[in-house]
Amino acid sequence: MTAHKEKQNDEDRIKEFLKQTLPPVAPAASPARDLWPLVLGRLDSEPATSYTQLRPFTQKLPWFDWALIAGLAVFAIAFPATVPVLLYYL
Amino acid sequence: MPERTKDVLDRFRHGDLDAFEALFREHQQSVYLWTLRIVRNTAAAEDLTVEAFLRMHRACARFDPARPFAPWARRVATRIALDWLRARPPETELDSDFATTVPASPAADPGVAAEIRSKTAQAFARLPPRLRIAAVLFLVEEQPHKDVAAALGISVTAAKLRVFRAVRLLRKDLERQGITP
Prior knowledge:
CATH class of the largest domain in chain B: Mainly Alpha
Number of helices of chain A: 6
Distance between the termini of chain A: 56 Å
Number of helices of chain B: 9
Oligomer: heterodimer
Number of domains of chain B: 2
Mean pLDDT of chain B: 87
Shape of chain A: flat
Distance between the termini of chain B: 47 Å
Mean pLDDT of chain A: 82
Helix content of chain B: over 70%
Shape of chain B: elongated
Structural class of chain B: mainly alpha
Number of strands of chain B: 0
CATH topology of the largest domain in chain B: Rna Polymerase Sigma Factor, Chain: A
Order of helices and strands of chain B: HHHHHHHHH
Strand content of chain A: under 5%
Order of helices and strands of chain A: HHHHHH
């Protein structure tokens, strides 16, 4: 038996097991209720524009990013010779 | 693409709620069906369908009206369903009442031992979610590779590879459990 045929048989057997375990969903399956009111309700409860979108870039950064920036600045001032190395790795 | 559809898509892109509702009404069933095929839980499929449409609404400005809506909707729904699968512990992956709650095609063959079904279900639940989606859509639901690949946002070759890896992992798992496929 060729490797391709063996692979195909293998796939067919697994497929049969899976189909017996998880019956395919009927193509006509539809939600038990109208979902549009739920969508509308969720849309109403959401702000038109989220606060995150309105905040300036500087307020979006978490504190540890600021700590890292401050650390790098101190390091660059204390050891100016390392600035090109830092820039190389950025 | 018909002129009316293009107009609806254009208006949707600009955040028009009526256009969004028209698209929702047109695609609700297909998005629900696609999601149900992946998550295999009717209540979750309803919630995820709502979530998918909300995400589409939020991302309407990024939608390209020159492209069809259905594949985009399916892709958004797949991403949300994948997140849902990832968030659930593996042992709760398959609902025991799936066969009775999901409108399914012909029932399981009673000739296939319950033990085999149970072990296959366990092996399936242990698959990584991204392989599980590819396996269930292609092997169980018999969706074309092209559609599965588009929904997952990968190439057809990558989709075939995922199915192949899923089959291999399932076979190994079943063999470990004493079942030789």
